[in-house]
From TrEMBL, chain A:
<feature type="transmembrane region" description="Helical">
    <location>
        <begin position="134"/>
        <end position="164"/>
    </location>
</feature>
<keyword id="KW-1133">Transmembrane helix</keyword>
<feature type="transmembrane region" description="Helical">
    <location>
        <begin position="55"/>
        <end position="73"/>
    </location>
</feature>
<feature type="transmembrane region" description="Helical">
    <location>
        <begin position="221"/>
        <end position="241"/>
    </location>
</feature>
<feature type="transmembrane region" description="Helical">
    <location>
        <begin position="171"/>
        <end position="192"/>
    </location>
</feature>
<keyword id="KW-0472">Membrane</keyword>
<feature type="transmembrane region" description="Helical">
    <location>
        <begin position="94"/>
        <end position="114"/>
    </location>
</feature>
<protein>
    <submittedName>
        <fullName>ABC transporter, permease protein</fullName>
    </submittedName>
</protein>
<keyword id="KW-0812">Transmembrane</keyword>
UniProtKB/TrEMBL annotation, chain B:
<feature type="domain" description="ABC transporter">
    <location>
        <begin position="4"/>
        <end position="229"/>
    </location>
</feature>
<dbReference type="Pfam" id="PF00005">
    <property type="entry name" value="ABC_tran"/>
</dbReference>
<keyword id="KW-0547">Nucleotide-binding</keyword>
<dbReference type="InterPro" id="IPR027417">
    <property type="entry name" value="P-loop_NTPase"/>
</dbReference>
<dbReference type="InterPro" id="IPR003439">
    <property type="entry name" value="ABC_transporter-like_ATP-bd"/>
</dbReference>
<protein>
    <submittedName>
        <fullName>ABC transporter, ATP-binding protein</fullName>
    </submittedName>
</protein>
<dbReference type="GO" id="GO:0016887">
    <property type="term" value="F:ATP hydrolysis activity"/>
</dbReference>
<dbReference type="GO" id="GO:0005524">
    <property type="term" value="F:ATP binding"/>
</dbReference>
<keyword id="KW-0067">ATP-binding</keyword>
Amino acid sequence: MLKSKSNRLALYDFNRSLIRLVWTFVWFVGITIVIPVLFSITFNGSTGFKLNSTGFAFVAGLYLFIDALMFNYDNFKWTIQNGISRRTAWWARIKGILLLALVVLVIDMIEMFVKGQKITVHSVFVGYQNETVGTYLIAIVQLYMGLLMLALAGLVVGCFLALLNKRGKAIVIIGFPVVLIVAVTNLARALVHANIDWTGIVNFSKIMFGYSDSTGNFNPVNSSIVMLVWILVCGGLSYWFSQKLRLRRD
Amino acid sequence: MAQIKIDHVTRKFGKNEVLKDISFELEPNKIYGLLGRNGAGKSTLLNIMTTRIFASSGKVTMDQQSVVENDDILADMFLMSEVDLYPERMRVEKIFKQAELCYGSFDYKKAYKLAEEFGVKLTARFGGLSTGYHSIVKLIVALCVPVNFVFFDEPVLGLDANHRELFYQELLQSYEERPRTFVISTHLIEEIAQIVEHVFILDQGKIVIDDETQAIIDRSYAITGPKKAVSDYSVGLNVIGHQTLGGLRTDYIYGDLDDERVIPDTIKIEHVDLQKLFVYLTEGSVNYVKE
């Protein structure tokens, strides 16, 4: 099984992503720790470094999104050159993302452990604040799913952008935020003036997050299903886009 | 043995129909020439065959199985194209490793030997190489991957005469060591005329010639002599072009001559080389009947 083409590619993809993640951390440490520490030592005589101020987990999460967003067309180019079908390349990418998200999860947990934070603090969906193994397990699983949601959202956008030529990309990258801002502004204005009964929306949200009015707790199963649906939809969309990839001349 | 079948393939880019109902077959262990003028659709056809782009209609199959999304078939093909699909920052040695990763094996011994002969630095980054060396790296990979179908799209782009000669030698040696199917698409017809066994000529999106090289040459004639004698002799034959020089005229014929027709003493009949035939067959201004 491990010798299958998609597994070989997934490991290759994962290794490359890992190297890029390490380089991201090198830059992050350089910019946020080394340079400020050098300045502090120079001007104040002390390091001024506090462990609590680091944000490796945030950077790793952001990296996960960006890594899934970028390199899709480049990956397509070299895989199709080397006789790999779009399906196999996509599947390898998904496996690579699953592994990379696992690494980011470990980084996240190590940082929380070092900072003395509890994992349940991060897992907003988990309402069971008693510290049982099950609670931690649910929190870890949900955190992992949250990272996958992030990565697959990046993958969908990346696969979609990979279909566009340079001009199309420029139009989308510039045009989409503009359209979004205008739409959100108008929507906000409309909502302010409209007399909307929010009860239905609030109740629906409660169901989505598994909130119980009687206990004040959240049922993690509901939110897990929502996350799973997001992951599956994004996975399906990215597969659909990747099947349409073709060599461009731009 | 595997055989590739191109079955009524059409490709449109907007309103422009680049390939028009193309059909032909590629047999195992044969060297093919795919000839055509700029924009004839050669690269588009090769890209469709390797699923880099999709056909608007029609299909490409290997042993009755579609090539689209078929890893087993794709792993049996390699297209060395003029476009560079390798990452710019990747080192040559890493490109070999990437090929091994995807194709399952790679002839490193041959690759290192070829790299030395062509003077390619294995540690050089792909993006830092010249156009000629880009072609060379891709040629080395093409000759060292374990596939049965190798397609070359402008393989000698940017190569000097020495490197071109070396490539043709290595190609033939590689074919001798391990026979497989090669398709060479190039504009340098004279250089491959002695290598290719079978020729496809693509003109304005259609295959106008699909035959063995020798058979094509055997059916191509240049009839030279006094204007009137040549014109009289050529009447009713498939004249694909002509040249005049003073009182002399040469008619280029593609097809069978009329055996019943008496050949005047004043005219000379000889076979035409592939390049000349190609030029006349694909020259838009000349009215000819394509057979």
